[in-house]
Write a structure and sequence with these properties.
With 329 residues, the protein is mostly helical. It folds into 2 domains: 214 residues, 3-Layer(aba) Sandwich (Rossmann fold), CATH 3.40.50.620; 83 residues, Tyrosyl-Transfer RNA Synthetase, CATH 1.10.240. Helix content is 57%, strand content 7%. It has 14 helices and 5 strands. The longest helix has 30 residues. It is elongated. It binds iron/sulfur cluster. The site of iron/sulfur cluster has 13 residues, from helix 11 and helix 13.
Length: 329
Amino acid sequence: MGKRIFSGMRPTGRLHLGHLAGALTNWVKLQDDNECFYCIVDWHALMSDYADSSKIKSNCKEVFLDWLAAGLDPEKATIFIQSHVPYHTELHLALSMVTPLGWLERNPTYKDQILNIQNKDLSTYAFLGYPVLMAADILLYKGEAVPVGEDQTAHLELTREIARRFNNFYGDIFPEPEGLFTETPKVPGTDGRKMSKSYGNSIDIADEPEVIWEKLRTMMTDPARERRKDPGDPAKCPVWDLHKVFNKNAAEKESLAEGCRTAGIGCVECKKSLYGHVMTLLEPIQQRRAYYETHGDEVTDILREGAKVAKEVAAKTMSEVVEAIGFVE
Ligand code: SF4
């Protein structure tokens, strides 16, 4: 059956349209033909939120509900929470033994985050080593492929290097995972910047329809369309970027673009059309979410079962690791 795929997501709370279009839609497709392990990486959340861990639990719950709502299927994929499988931390320690400090200090994302995240003290031992935990997450399941965006290639390369170095010391335990590159669509938030919870510009999967309309109604457009009679350019409009992702009706898009350029339509009309397409996509997702919100026992069972399956696979890898290192068994 296809490849063994691992992918994880940090629990940052409710997911938005950017997560849906950028990752989840792809994950849902992958689970049909591959052996997928999808993991909410709560230890990673603690690396940056150690000073206030109070939201990690509820954030995990929200992410899990959004995953199930989006169509991740426990019958097809193993879906679980990282801390439910303690072997992640054990392999993290084993891999940290063989990872040279220089590899971590050179990691471009680490340097970026240290510079850009000002409100948290990230100068910790664990934060420097977070790519080692990422490597452990993937290698624990002998992941052969990892869905990655352009910005994650450095991390995947580091995982490959750590696997190679471990294998050189102790024998051929880990496959070097490949990147499954999928084009990540541009999904701007309501202010035109990349959709992100931290910018406060996101449209969440679980937002009420009226909230979604209000966010779209007030969303930034091509600034040239100050008045209804001013022509615009869809290429300069973030609303149009959302049409490109969520509106599958080519003829309608052509007519809206023409209406924008000639001031034949107003932005409200254009946004109403987008709202319709977004809601067509979200309605079944929100219905599934509502179901799981009121069936907490089922959600707990899915999590338990996911952890059980993940633990079995992880235990096997860890016993190979322990044997290869040569500890007393
Ligand atoms: Fe943007 Fe549509 Fe308004 Fe044109 S008509 S500026 S594409 S919202």
